[in-house]
Amino acid sequence: MSTQEAESRLELLQGTLDLLILRTLIFGPQHGQGIARAIQQTSDEELLVEHGALYPALQRLEERGWISAKWGISTNNRKARFYSLTAAGRKQLVKETAKWKRLSTAIGRILGPEET
Amino acid sequence: MFRRKRKTNDFGAEIESHIELETERLQEQGLTYEDARTAALRAFGNVTRAQERFYESGRWLWGDDFWHDIRYALRMLRKQPAFTLVAVLTLALGIGANTAIFSIVNAVLLRSLPFAHPDRLVKIIANNHGVGARDVGLSVPELDDLRLRAGVFEQVSAMATGDTNLTGAQRPQRLELAVVSPNYFSMLGASAHIGRVFGLSDEVPGFAEAAVISDSLWASGFGRDPGILGRKLQLDNDPYTIVGVLPPGFRHPGTAVTDVEVWAASGYRADPYPKPERSLRVATGAIGLLKPGISREQAQARLDAFAAQLRAEYATDYPAGSGWSIEVEPLQESLVGNVRPMLLVLMGAVVLIILLASVNVANLLLVRASGRQREMAVRLALGASRARMIRQLLTESLILSLVSGIVGVLTAMAALHFVQFLPARIPRLAEVQMDWTVLAFALLVSLLAGLGFGLVPALQSSKAEIALAIREGARGSGTSGKTNRLRGLLIASESALAVVLMVGAGLLLRTFWGLLQENPGFNRSNIVIADTRIPVPNNPQLNRYAQPESLNTFVREVLRRVRAIPGVDLASMTTDLPVTHLSQRFPINIEDRPDESRKGLFSETTSVTPEYFKVLQASLVRGRWFEEDDQSGKQPVVIVDESTARTYWPDRDPIGRRLSIGRAATWWNVVGVVKDIKSDGLDQFGNPHIYTPIYQFPEIQGVDFFIGAGPLSVTVRTSLSSASLEPQIRREIKAIDPGLPVFNVRAMNEVIDSSLASRRFSAQLVGVFAVVALLLASVGIYGLLAYTVGQRSHEIGVRMALGAMPSTIGKMIVSRGVGLTGIGVVIGLILSGIMAPMISTLLYGVRPLDPEVFLAVPLILMVVALLASYVPARRAARVSPSVALRDS
Hints:
The complex is a heterodimer of chains A (116) and B (888).
Chain A lengths: L2 H6 L1 E2 L4 H10 L4 E2 H11 L4 E2 L2 H14 L2 E7 L5 E7 L1 H25 L5
Parallel strand pairs in A: 1-3
Antiparallel strand pairs in A: 2-5, 4-5
Chain B lengths: L7 H21 L4 H12 L2 H11 L4 H18 L1 H30 L10 E8 L11 H9 L4 E15 L5 E8 L3 H5 L5 E2 L11 E7 L1 H8 L9 E4 L2 E8 L16 E5 L18 E6 L5 H18 L10 E7 H6 L3 H32 L1 H9 L4 H31 L19 H27 L3 H10 L5 H37 L9 E6 L15 H16 L4 E7 L9 E7 L3 H5 L2 E8 L3 H5 L3 E4 L13 E5 H7 L9 E4 L6 E7 L14 E5 L3 H5 L10 E7 L3 H15 L5 E6 H8 L1 H45 L4 H30 L15 H27 L4 H6 L1
Parallel strand pairs in B: 3-8, 5-7, 14-19, 16-18
Antiparallel strand pairs in B: 1-9, 1-10, 2-3, 2-6, 2-9, 4-7, 5-8, 6-7, 11-20, 11-21, 12-20, 13-14, 13-17, 15-18, 16-19, 17-18
């Protein structure tokens, strides 16, 4: 992946990373690298996640009690810290998702139909 | 706050695992390991930054910031050495003064006595309140009643302190002896350093042969001879055997003229004591150990009832009007009672000093803070939180105050070396030391001062408005009106504090100066005194002076020889010197005042040779002086002082009236009235005084058991100094009786000075504090105005350019300084008015609200404020209008 490629990607809006992490974890426990990968893949490589930025976010979510973490072994036998969604995290995800949908709908209306 | 939830290296491991997983994934896509790892690292972004963010997200930064703050604070203080020096010196002065005075207060007032049950030990005091007589002493039957019937004491020990002549050691020496009950030491929980203290074996009706000596007598009299036990010594010619030496720290818990050096045990009820009688008060005092569980208040209540019961039981021994009662006082209180107010006043003064010092440093910090406003604003703009900045500034002030605290404590330690040389007679002074309590106090004062002077400027400057400060800061001014008001408030409070201290000092100094000018009733200059003492052995066989003639011969012989010394004009002898409070006190009976007499009148009685009044140059009001012929066997005569004459014979001529002294039936004729001589101290008055001829000693000796036990003072009028007279007087007395001690050779002026020593000490100390306060306040005013002028020079320049007169500008500056001081002075005067009555016990001849002091202090302060304002005002008046142009 070249720098060129990276620059054409969308930068994440402030605050949306948390939502994406929670969303990714709904499929089960995952480590940091897996989460970064998953976000990139599910967004068809459109979203740019600086992997380094992920960890403070994970740290923050962990402190708020929305995700929990423990060390485990990855599929290819590496030690990794696995994050999983807590009950509180699930509630938060529902809340944030609803909020995000309302927000994007509203913004979509203002911006009008897509010009393609 | 001090433990992270997750270790940093745990986080590092996670990042490493991430990079490896990513590398592996990229390798699967066909990249080489190196390319894959590089790409993984790039995708991760800045690893260090991620770690930093993790670190900060922990929020457990306090510890790191703390050290950072300290380093930064030290750097800031080093960068401004002048500021640091002034601040540290100011604070060190305050903290040092507080520490030094507190260490005295701690040792004298706070620390418990070094005895076994300090809280249960009391002094037992018998009073005849009906005639205003306190501490009249106790008789053997009274002591027995207290011990056996009162029901509040576990133990009671009688005691009598007085002079004794030590012979058989080196040259004859006068010592303070305490005659005590054998249970004295066990009651105090004291044991001997070597040998033993008194015990059951010393329970005798008369005197035991055992003697216990102090550590200092062991050192000075016996060279710390380890084989001291069993050594014989003579006290007033009576033989004693040393059975024990006390540890260095032991001190007799009573007020003695000098520290007790030797203890003897007695039962007070057999030879040499007369047969016990209720009215024969052989013990000068007693100490008691309260039963466990009985508070002092409960004990006092029971003793009040008990005394009433005794008064009823023995109506003849306790005259109706005497109001005889028993009082118990905590032993600590009775030891330090009269120095407590003085020490508290000194403590109050140093508290004011530290307040002033803090206010001054707060002011300095404010000045500095406005200089640093730009720094603060930049830091705020860069995202520092307000709390963080306050903490930084507070750390700086705490460091400042702790450094000052260390300097202050070191200064105080050095000062305490000189405590033992204090002229004031303060009990327990030897116990003054720098202990943990004192250090904790110094730390507390430092921290409080640091917080106090640091908080206000810190809050103030962290409030800096970013944009405004950066803009104004660039121009080098930018103190808001609020800061100026705050500084004004500080200046006013400094003036107020200074006023309080100066009023206190003024009152004490006026008292002291008044006493110096107080007419003692005689001419104090050119008088030299040498004391000697006739022993009073318990065994009459050992008494060389048992016959009245032998005593009179001795006195006449001493005076004849001393008079012959070249340079001596007049020589006399007395049993009591003026202003020393040592006279013997006896009950008296006035023939034509039976009502008062029945209540139990007391009078201070002094025996003198005829020349005594001439040596003193006292004035005779009526009648005649004593004559050589007023001697034993002739009609007993007395001279009374004017106050006594006025009290008892206000409407009659006292000459020819008769009175009796003590228990003897002899009537004494009043032959003269002398103008009052201050006998008990320059600040004492009111006690009746009676003078009797020394040659009628036997008549006096009949009145009480203890007469003649005190020193005899050879009092001469001479142009010579005490130092040059001493060897000659010593030689003459030795020639008459080599067994007699000669001691305390000094000038009358020294006697008077030492009677004022503790007043001089407190007045001078508070005076010094007041000067310091005045200096601090004037520096504060000067600092504020100088700074204001510097800051407003632009504005002043504009005013000048617009035509303001230099004098107007000068007046503006002066009026600000004087105005602020004025506000402070008014507040200070109100505070002083409230506080001055609290020190009224230390005042004599001055009212607490003395108008002169209350006028002079504001005047002095206002003049100083004017002077302090003058320099900045002159500078302001010289600001050139061009400043306005140049600056903008």
